[in-house]
Design goal:
Blueprint: E1 8-10, E2 16-22, E3 30-38, E4 46-55, E5 58-60, E6 68-72, E7 76-84, E8 87-93, E9 103-109, E10 113-121, E11 124-130, E12 135-143, E13 146-152, E14 157-165, E15 168-174, E16 179-187, E17 197-200, E18 205-211
Parallel strand pairs: 3-5, 3-6, 4-7, 5-8, 6-8, 7-9, 8-10, 9-11, 10-12, 11-13, 12-14, 13-15, 14-16, 15-17, 16-18
Antiparallel strand pairs: 1-4, 2-3
């Protein structure tokens, strides 16, 4: 479904499921599969989508065949897709923690893939992907984590995984075929000052893991 940014879908108390395709506006053949379920609190979950400059884009869940999912209360996501064949996979769930909603901004260009999973409370993410067949992924489990990921270049891949609380990570990946995985396990960890970690290579694979000790 194509909706201009700022036209939100908000969950009702009983939940909301959409499986929609549309051809209105500038884009054609775009699809949105969405499940929203408010399990506590008074604030619904909100998704704002702009696929108006995209063709044949798809928004769905993390698992093939499942819809993009917002579960709990107060989760918010803003998705913008332009170009041809872009895909976004989304999960936001704060139903177990019962805390603040998770929030995310995703900007995707061209034939590329953006994957975002947030389980916990008060997590924020900013994910942008540019370049044909590029892929960017953010997974956050815990509370009040913040991740900023930018991926650029054909077939470049970037992955940020944060498990814990109060983690802040910034990662920039540049270069054709470059693959970077950044994992943080623990609490109160940050690499953001100075722009975080920046990787400039062509075709290299880089894996970084940080673990805090008790």
């Amino acid at each position: 479904m194509m909706m201009k940014a700022g036209f939100p879908i908000a969950a009702t108390a009983g939940g909301l499921f959409l499986a929609m395709a549309g051809t209105a506006g500038a884009g054609n053949g775009n699809k949105l599969y969405l499940l929203q379920e408010k399990t506590f609190g008074t604030e619904g979950n909100t998704l704002s989508v702009d696929q108006s400059q995209a063709n044949d884009s798809i928004i769905r869940g993390l698992v093939s065949g499942q819809p993009a999912t917002q579960k709990g209360s107060g989760n918010r996501a803003e998705l913008t897709i332009d170009g041809n064949g872009g895909r976004v996979q989304l999960l936001q769930n704060n139903s177990i923690s019962g805390g603040a909603g998770n929030s995310a901004v995703v900007n995707l260009s061209g034939n590329a893939l953006a994957i975002l999973g947030q389980v916990g409370a008060g997590n924020t993410a900013n994910l942008s992907v540019a370049g044909e067949l590029a892929q960017g992924s953010i997974f956050q489990t815990g509370k009040f984590n913040n991740a900023d990921l930018s991926v650029s270049g054909n077939r470049a891949k970037g992955l940020v995984t944060q498990i814990g609380n109060n983690i802040t990570t910034g990662l920039s990946v540049t270069g054709t075929g470059t693959t970077v995985s950044y994992t943080v396990n623990g609490n109160n960890v940050t690499n953001a000052p100075g722009g975080g970690v920046q990787v400039y290579t062509n075709g290299a694979a880089v894996s970084i893991t940080q673990t805090t000790f008790p």
